[in-house]
Amino acid sequence: VTSDLSKVLPDLEELDLSYNSISGEFVLPKCSSLKHLDVSNNKISSFDAVGGVCQDFNYMNAAANQLTTVPSVFAPRFYEEKSSLMLYDNQIELDGVIDINVDILDLSQNAITSISDFAFSGIYTRSITLESNQIASISETAFQNSTHLVELILANNQLKSLKPGVFSSNQ
């Protein structure tokens, strides 16, 4: 994929590269109008935003790849209502704070075993799906100041108990 789509396809709004054999680092194309990008079901291990993301960019599906971390190429400007980042079925482990702001963040079916201090603290995400990981513990401050969060899906994990106040710090 050329690194400057704005010259070749200036009006391109949606790019679907799913179910290919793209591997290694994926260089996000510079573009002026891209809103939707689907690179799911490839072998992508990381992302690089050469020209930055497009101003109206609001959907990316990078599910079923080989990602081990949440791509930071969208942080923190990416938030807008109805924006989505689909990262399910990768190999993502949460280490530290997630500095990303999307309306919907799907991290289901990854390699997440715990949610550490301030992991989602202060993000503007409204919906986080962490279903079908191996989460056994959640820090009391994991969701602190996540005042926009209205949906949190933790189904099918390894939780046996929750620390007192794990959700009450969400003020």
Helix content: under 10%
Approximate shape: globular
Total of helices: 1
What percentage of amino acids are in beta strands? 15-25%
Task: Give the N-terminus to C-terminus distance in angstroms.
Answer: 44 Å
Structural class estimated from helices and strands: mainly beta
Q: Give, in order, the helices and strands.
A: HEEEEEEEEEEE
Mean pLDDT, rounded to whole units?
86
Uncertain residue segments: none
Alpha-carbon Rg, integer? 16 Å
Sheet with most strands: 7 strands, parallel
Number of strands: 11
- As laid out across the biggest beta sheet, the strand order is 1-3-5-6-7-9-11
Question: Could you explain the architecture of this structure?
Answer:
By secondary structure, the chain is mainly β. Helix content is 2%, strand content 22%. It is built from 1 helix and 11 strands; from the N terminus they run αβββββββββββ. The protein has one helix at 5-8, and strands spanning 14-16, 23-28, 36-38, 43-49, 59-61, 84-86, 104-106, 114-115, 127-129, 137-138, 151-153. A 7-stranded parallel β-sheet has the order 1-3-5-6-7-9-11, with no helix packed on it. It has a two-stranded parallel ribbon with strand order 2-4. It is globular. The mean pLDDT is 86.
